[in-house]
Every structure is written in C-alpha cells, then in structure tokens.
What we know:
The chain is 8% helix and 60% strand. The protein is mostly beta strands and 232 residues long. It starts with a helix and ends with a strand.
Amino acid sequence: MRHILTSVVLVVLLFPSLASGETVKWGDLIVREGLHYKKFTDVPFTGKITGEFQGKLKNGKKEGPWVSYHENGQLLSKFNYKNGKMEGPWVSHHDNGQIGSEGDFKNGKPDGPWVYYHKNGQLETKATYKNGKEEGPYESHHDNGQLKEKGTFKNGKKEGPWVVYHKNGQLSSKGTFKNGWKEGHWVTYYDNGQLETKGDYKNVRFEGPWVVYHDNGQLMSKGTYKDGKKVK
C-alpha cells in the first residue's frame, strides 16, 4: 500500500494536470487531424477550456457540455459533445440576447425539428433534418414576419411545389422543384405585383415559350427555347 501511495504522490507532483485536470484558454489550442492539442505539444489535450469557447476536452476531443460567447460577452451557444461529436440539444443566441436557433444534434449532425429566429425575435425558419439533411416541410419568414418561402425538402434538396414572397407580402415566384432544380412551369413577379417572367424548365433548361416584362407591365422580350437555346 505504501508503494502505491508513493506512486500516486509522485504522479501528482510531476504531472499535476493528470490529477486535477489542467485548464487552458481556447486560443492556446491547435487542431491536428480533428484532435485538440496545447501549442508545442504532441499529446492530445485533456482538461478544461476557458475563453470564447468553454468546456472540457478528453484525449483531444470535446466532451460534455460546452458554451461559447460573443465578443460583447453575450452567450452565443450552449451545446453538448459525446466523443468529439455534437449530441443532444443546441441553443444559440444573437449578440443582443435574442434566441438565434434551437434544435438537436445526433451523432454530430442536425436531427429533427429546428427553428431559427431573426435578431428582432421574429421567426426566421422552421425546418426538419434527417441525418444532417433537410427533410420535409420548410418555411421561412422575413424579419417583418411576412412569409418568405414555403416548400418541401427531400434528402436535402428542394422537391415539389415552392412559393417565394417579397417582404411586402407580394408573390415573388411560384413553381416546382425536382431533385433540387426548377422543373416545369415557373412565374416570377415584381414587388408591385406585376408579372416579371413566365415560362417552363425542362432538365434545368428553358423549354418552350418564355416572356419577360418590365415592372410597369410592358413587354420586355419573348422567345421560344429548346434544350435551353433560343430557337425563335
């Protein structure tokens, strides 16, 4: 037993950071191949971190609760790590204290419902993630509360009917997406309600008749396209 106690005392005296957990500033760390090290060392760091990011590292990986701060001292975010990957609830804040975003991480990727807010507190975006990619209904708003975009994501890409609105509430564009690209009939409008463009897409290219108008309703141009090339 005496020999064991002597060994423990020697470890504490010679390597205090191993016994109590060393504390360093975030700015005194470097990252190599995904692991955090103290500058001028070759051993992944274990201990507490202070500064703009605060939490704990275990063998160079973030572990447990972490927080970060804006330059003005306001809380920026609260999150959690498991074996170096973000896991569980995430909350972020704007530098005025308003909530910026809320959601969950799973195995390092956003998962489930997420909401984002403008700096003035107005709802900005509602989305759902699956394995880190947007999936399902999507909705965003201007900072005055007006609806901005509404549609659906599939495997991280826009899919199906989609509408976009100007900040004043006027319709901006309307059409359909296929695998993240515009497909089929699309129309766009100026913020005064006047029609701007009208035509069809096929395989990401203009197809068939297209017309373009000035914001006063006067015709600007028209033509017919095939495979994205104007034919008349």
